[in-house]
Amino acid sequence: MNDDTLKNAIDSILFVSGDAVEIEMIATALDIDKKTLGRLIDEMATQKQQSEAGVLIKRVENKVQLCSNPVYMEQIDRALQPVKKSRLSQSLMETLAIIAYKQPITRFEIEQIRGVRCNYSIAVLIERGLIERVGRKKALGNPMLYATNDEFLRHFGLSSLAELPELKTEETNKQPKVV
To answer: By mean pLDDT, which of 22-26, 88-92, 156-160 is the weakest?
Structure first.
């Protein structure tokens, strides 16, 4: 791959991740050495900074991530303020439903059910005040446990979790066999 293709791949990896990604993981995925990757990241960061791009590249220890340009913070706040009060995306609703029905639950358990990483969804739900950390599971690594809270009930017009619709099990979802 040429440098431009590698830079586009790096941008894509960082965008999709949403979180900081270890430099070594990116180097392995792109089959390049860390020195070459470091040079490409530095070039990208400088180019984005000089062009006053809306999204910058930031290094955090041995990781790299995308971040918004602070120059545009006022516009970001104006544009996203209504979004914070808007309806929840499909992925947020899926994560929230799993937490509501299975609480308290760990991030790993949620990911096992959804089949995808959910760091971002959990962070957004905590930020919006719909879930909270409620302790740690007594298991290997003592993972954090998450549960809904009073704001969740208010948001959905419920007075208690008992008012949640009954959860369909696999048995009730099966169609009768036609012979």
So the answer is: 156-160
Which residue from 153, 145, 116 is spatially nearest to 17, judged by alpha carbons? 116
Reduced to 3 states (helix: H, G, I; strand: E, B; else coil), residue 63 is: strand
User: Mean pLDDT over all residues of the chain?
Assistant: 87
| Distance (Å, whole) CA 115 – CA 85 | 27
Non-local CB neighbours of 131 within 8 Å, separated by 6+ positions:
96, 99, 122, 125, 146, 147, 148, 149, 152
d(C-alpha 10, C-alpha 6), whole Å: 6
Structural domains of the chain sorted by starting position, each given as residue range(s) with its CATH number in brackets:
3-71 (1.10.10.10), 87-163 (1.10.10.10)
Apex 104 CA angle, 112 and 124, nearest 5: 70
| pTM greater than 0.85 | no
